[in-house]
Specification:
Elements (H helix, E strand, L loop, with lengths): L20 H17 L11 E5 L4 H17 L4 E6 L3 H10 L4 E4 L6 H13 L4 E4 L5 H8 L4 E7 L8 H11 L1 H7 L2 E5 L6 H11 L16 H11 L7 E5 L13 H13 L4 E4 L6 H11 L12 H9 L3 E5 L2 H8 L4 E4 L5 H4 L8 E4 L9 E2 L2 E2 L16 H4 L3 H12 L1
Parallel strand pairs: 1-2, 1-4, 2-3, 4-5, 5-6, 7-8, 7-9, 9-10, 10-11
Antiparallel strand pairs: 12-13
Helix pairs in contact: 1-5, 1-7, 2-8, 2-13, 4-5, 5-7, 9-12, 10-11, 10-16
Length: 416
């Protein structure tokens, strides 16, 4: 008997910190030498071959779509390539947008032979413009980047309270900020004030001389086939209002997933008291939490966790009346599709990563603990000098102490 196919994962690899201290020092020295040697200069002609480095998770990629749409509409005849980790993003999400002519799957690895072949692959493209998302790792690609005339991305000026010179230098090496400063000739600056990621990404378009306003229409990546799948799958379950529940993954590196036992108890009240139907959505990485939700709810909840691809999951959410989950990519998918959502926030910031349109349709659920949020731009960002952040916190009360009775009142009121 052949083995059953593996359940599909919807996760994309997180952007990784840059190598060992010795490698970081090498990348810094290389960036300095490339700058001294004189990177390629712009010649004043409009670029005809773009390469976009979009290594990012699902939610971050959705936040980038308005900017990528603005770029494509400004350069309708240009060849635009997209560089990404091999994942559902590169194989489902990006192709469905129709914004890119070529997709280069380049998995981030911290070894010399990989780096040489990855840079050779970029150099063969003969690109005349390069664009880096905030999470893209610039030092890995800086030999190829130096030969591209237009080099655009972000400079980060966001500094936690009390951070001094040595903290800044360490961050510059760990995150590749030094390479960004030395090699980009077009940049948008990310400062200390919290800013929604969509607006931040559109400011990068401003650095290119393009409008910074969001395009009137942004193609959301859901195919007709995915819509048919979702409609047919959910039709037998539709006895009233339908609520999509995303359990999230227990291995999330930012500790931003609400305990599944509490989510299960919320599901039980939704089913028994609000008389709605709940369905679980997510990828294979969410299956252990999905089982815990069902156990706490005291019943089997119809589940599509690990049973379909990313676009089908987006379509399932679009058919629902409400989405409930933690700060994940699927919460962003609900917002982008105009589906009302209730998001449980812990260490991350809803100002940066929450709704960017129609905020009245989206409920932010927070404990109000003083040290939250402690993550900004994907990095530790304690609110006080020497304060706790998600890596050093021993309690994670920002999520663990979200009061369940208050949450129930807010969600049930919002639902009606």
């Amino acid at each position: 008997m052949s083995a059953a196919p593996a359940a599909p994962s919807l996760a994309a690899p997180e952007s990784i910190a840059i190598g060992s201290p010795l490698k970081r020092a090498f990348y810094a020295l290389e960036a300095i030498l490339l700058r001294l040697a004189g990177p390629a200069a712009e010649d004043g002609r409009p670029p005809t071959r773009w390469v976009v480095f979009g290594h990012a998770a699902v939610g971050d990629t959705l936040f980038l779509l308005p900017a990528w749409t603005r770029l494509r509409r400004a350069y309708p005849k240009a060849h635009i390539a997209y560089v990404s980790n091999p994942s559902p993003i590169s194989r489902e999400l990006i192709p469905a947008t129709g914004l890119f002519d070529e997709i280069l799957e380049i998995e981030l690895r911290d070894d010399w032979s990989w780096r040489r072949s990855a840079n050779e692959r970029i150099q063969k493209g003969r690109y005349d413009a390069a664009l880096f998302s905030l999470s893209a790792v610039v030092p890995y690609f800086q030999p190829a980047l130096a030969g591209i005339p237009l080099r655009a991305g972000f400079h980060m000026d966001a500094v936690p309270p009390g951070a001094g010179f040595f903290w800044r230098m360490k961050r510059a090496l760990v995150t590749g900020e030094l390479s960004r400063r030395l090699l980009f000739n077009r940049a948008a600056v990310v400062g200390g004030e919290a800013e929604n990621a969509v607006a931040r990404n559109l400011r990068l378009m401003g650095a290119l001389g393009l409008p910074q306003s969001s395009p009137e229409s942004v193609p959301f990546p859901v195919t007709d086939a995915a819509k048919r799948y979702a409609f047919q799958a959910l039709e037998p379950l539709r006895t009233g209002k339908l609520v999509a529940i995303h359990p999230g993954s227990a291995s999330n590196p930012y500790f931003k997933i609400w305990p599944p036992e509490k989510l299960g108890r919320l599901c039980r009240r939704l089913i028994e008291e609000a008389k709605v139907s709940c369905v679980l959505v997510g990828g294979a990485e969410d299956m252990p939490n999905a089982a815990a939700v069902c156990a706490a709810a005291g019943r089997e909840i119809p589940s599509f966790v690990g049973r379909c691809g990313l676009l089908e999951t987006f379509a399932l959410i679009s058919e629902c009346d409400l989405f409930i989950g933690s700060d994940t990519g699927l919460a962003k998918a609900a917002i982008a599709q105009g589906v009302p959502s209730a998001t449980l926030w812990g260490p991350t910031d809803p100002v940066e990563l929450g709704a960017w349109k129609n905020p009245h349709r989206h409920l932010d659920l927070r404990s109000g603990i003083s040290c939250s949020p402690c993550v900004r731009l994907g990095m530790p960002y304690p609110k006080t000098p020497g304060g706790l952040d998600y890596r050093t916190c021993s309690h994670h009360d920002c999520l663990n102490k979200l009061p369940e009775p208050d949450l129930w009142c807010q969600v049930s009121t919002f639902l009606t």
